[in-house]
């Protein structure tokens, strides 16, 4: 599983401005061995140019006992980021989200449709994966029991694989025929008529 961790060792690296009234800019970085908190003081004082960024660096496992840094992280980046960072400091890595996307999409394609819908509600990353065109193309090819032609791929680029999957066969045949006519027709007015009547 260690091979799924990033080669540069960076598990989390985010930046953001502290909430008002502070204008300080912060970076929070976690690697496989340490935690780094940097602060750039933003001020209108004349001596601001002499202020260097402050930095705190400590071993990863020490973060769970550092109340001060935990407060700063929660204050600037929110409770969700703090909870995630605490898990990382305890050695709890999110291996599943580090699986290469093509492999993840391949695994998702074997789920039942109801499970894909539930999976999409777990987090933003899975929401995006479960709506990916590449996933629905695989699902379409697996479940529809028909050879995917070039014309069907062209129609999918226009309407999307997911929408194609949930379109009944009769409607899909009509859409496919009209789509093919629009592509092949040298007469723009004919293509326009086909487009206007597509949803009739």
Automatic annotation (TrEMBL):
Residues 93-139 form the F-box domain. Coiled coil: none annotated. Gene3D superfamilies: 1.20.1280.50. InterPro entries: F-box-like_dom_sf, F-box_dom. PROSITE patterns: FBOX. Pfam families: F-box-like (PF12937). This is F-box domain-containing protein. It comes from Strongylocentrotus purpuratus.
């Amino acid at each position: 599983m260690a091979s799924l961790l990033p080669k540069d060792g960076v598990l989390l690296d985010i930046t953001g401005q502290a909430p008002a009234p502070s204008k300080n800019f912060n970076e929070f970085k976690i690697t496989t061995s340490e935690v780094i908190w940097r602060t750039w003081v933003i001020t209108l004082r004349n001596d601001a140019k002499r202020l260097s960024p402050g930095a705190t660096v400590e071993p990863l496992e020490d973060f769970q006992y550092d109340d001060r840094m935990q407060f700063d992280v929660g204050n600037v980046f929110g409770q969700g980021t703090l909870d995630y960072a605490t898990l990382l400091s305890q050695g709890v890595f999110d291996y599943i989200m580090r699986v290469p996307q093509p492999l993840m999409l391949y695994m998702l394609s074997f789920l039942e449709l109801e499970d894909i819908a539930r999976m999409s509600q777990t987090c933003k990353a899975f929401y995006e994966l479960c709506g990916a065109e590449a996933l629905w193309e695989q699902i379409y090819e697996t479940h529809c029991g028909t050879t995917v032609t070039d014309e069907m791929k062209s129609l999918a680029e226009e309407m999307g694989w997911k929408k194609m999957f949930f379109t009944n066969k009769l409607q899909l045949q009509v859409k496919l025929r009209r789509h093919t006519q629009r592509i092949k027709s040298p007469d723009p007015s004919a293509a326009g008529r086909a487009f206007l009547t597509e949803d009739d």
